[in-house]
Every structure is written in structure tokens, then in C-alpha cells.
Amino acid sequence: NAGVTQTPKFQVLKTGQSMTLQCAQDMNHNSMYWYRQDPGMGLRLIYYSASEGTTDKGEVPNGYNVSRLNKREFSLRLESAAPSQTSVYFCASSDGVPGLAGTTDTQYFGPGTRLTVL
Amino acid sequence: AQSVTQLGSHVSVSEGALVLLRCNYSSSVPPYLFWYVQYPNQGLQLLLKYTTGATLVKGINGFEAEFKKSETSFHLTKPSAHMSDAAEYFCAAILMDSNYQLIWGAGTKLIIKP
Description:
The complex is a heterodimer of chains A (118) and B (114).
Chain A: E1 4-7, E2 10-13, E3 19-25, E4 31-37, E5 43-51, E6 54-57, E7 64-68, E8 74-78, E9 87-94, E10 108-109, E11 113-117
Parallel strand pairs in A: 2-11
Antiparallel strand pairs in A: 1-3, 3-8, 4-5, 4-9, 5-6, 7-8, 9-10, 9-11
Chain B: E1 3-7, E2 10-14, E3 19-26, E4 32-38, E5 44-50, E6 56-58, E7 64-68, E8 73-78, E9 87-94, E10 102-104, E11 108-113
Parallel strand pairs in B: 2-11
Antiparallel strand pairs in B: 1-3, 3-8, 4-5, 4-9, 6-7, 7-8, 9-10, 9-11
């Protein structure tokens, strides 16, 4: 049982390049999330998916796209990377439905991807 | 706007001393509250959470937190700090009057002095 896995662990891009961050979970969770973590700013939600086939914007979606490929996998794509997207990216999953009254579920996090955009 | 505030971006304590990390939320309705821990170069993991019932919640590694409605607080404590507690700690809340979205605090880095 690997939990939440992310690839790659590290990546360096030049401005304007594109890349896709991969995330997979083996806990049969309904919901998946992409966050970015920057010093002093905590976690900021980029996109989330409450179920296969649905995605919704979070707090900072500009410059990103996502795909919920199936129940297990949720990818994050940077079409044209910018230095402001230098950050640590975390994928998470949970069993509940975000935004649903009564949801108290725990989120399970991957180990993160450290992305540098030059 | 609804928010979660953690007082102090860095907290330093001596090994064996009391750990107190502060978290306050702004909401007129009691939320669900969480503390997560992030060890260096790792993802976050749940320490403990409060949903309903007993206001003193015990978590892993000897940590506990108390929900105080009158103070809108959910401070994290541990009686005796250990070197292995050095990490960043995040408070988060599901606020009923914020569309039940999970809102994160900015994090507090706990430094343990030998």
C-alpha cells in the first residue's frame, strides 16, 4: 500500500517550457487535490477533483491545468512555466467530498515535487 | 473573510520543555479543526482532528489540542519536546460558513534546542 505517489521528485524547467506532474493514490479515495507550498504562505489549493471526471478551481488556478484520468490518477500540467511557479507541489487525496456539509475527512499527502523554473 | 491564523512562523523550545503552537480561526459557527505535521522533505500527515464531542483531542506522538469555542482557538500542545518533533505544523479548518472548504493556516516551524 503506497498511499499517494508523485513523480517526479525534482524538476528544473526553463521559462516557457511545459511539463506534467503525475499523482496516483491506491486508497480508493474519491477526491484528489493539488497544492503548492511557498515559504510563509502555507498551502494553497490549485485544483481539486471530487470524483472521476470532475475538476474544480481552487485558490490559485491560473497557469495550471489538471486531468482526472481515472479514480487513481490526477495530473497537473504547466503549459508555459514561469519563474513564479517555482514551488513545492503536493498532491493529496481524501475519501470525502470537498465542500460537502459534514465532510470531516483526513487528507493524505504525497511526498511532493520540487519545481524550479529558471 | 474566514481565516485560520497561526501565531508565530517559528517557535523555538528546549528539549524537554512544553510545546505550545497557537491556532485561531474566524467563524461564527464552530468548525472542524485539524493539525497536520510536515517533517523535513516530506508530505503532510494528520496529527489530530476535532469534529464533535470531547473538546480535548489526543493525537499521535504525544500531542494534544483543545477546542475552545469562546476563544475561537485550537492550540496544539505537548508536555515535553523531543528532538524528533522538529517539523512544520499546520492548522486547518473546515468552516461551515465558508462553503465547507478546508482552509489552511500559514504554518509554524518548531525548532528544538538541545
